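re: that chain from earlier
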Amino acid sequence: MPLRLDITKRLKTQSIRVKSVAFHPTEPWVLSGLYDGTATIWNYELEELVKSFEISSQPVRSVAFVARKQWIVASGDDMHLTVFNYNTMAKVTTIEAHHDYVRYVEVHPVLPVVLTCSDDMTVKMWDWDKNWLCTRVFEGHGSYVMMAKFNPKDTNTFATAGFDGTVRVWGLSSSTAHFTLEGHIKGVNCIDYYPGGDKPYLISGSDDKTVKVWDYQ
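^ sequence. v structure.
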């Protein structure tokens, strides 16, 4: 029997699609990336729009908070990585990040780096302490890179979901994957690590209508 949950809050946008959402770790805020090229911050307790940022004239596919810097990061079909200070509303930077759509941004929990995943089949690492220098390009996927996630148990490693049907696990110090997980027969759209300390699990969801649980040890 399907689980049924009550809707407790509803935040209405003018854009025809919401492409990405993220929670702030301490404030009652939701950040959304919209098809109309904007990113918005909502107070979900008051159900009010807090701030809106003009990111691009093209869809914003991925957004994230960098709370320790008071930033939002956003990326999408304009192939750029854009950063705003959410307190001052000032633009921090806009980087021409990839040669195709940027599918996902992933912020490292401690280090001053952001990962971007693109339809150009690469993942790039950007260091904001080095004036947003691209410090490494990760290559190996045979199609779009849909998502990346840092391992909460070992933040020097991360996993990626590829439309080539593979999940790959990488280290920050090497441009090639440590290993590749093959088992899906269609593109992999999403991944996540099990957050507890007792199981070394990685999950993936695919267009082949399956969710797979991997023991990466």
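The CA atoms of residues 41 and 51 lie 5 Å apart.
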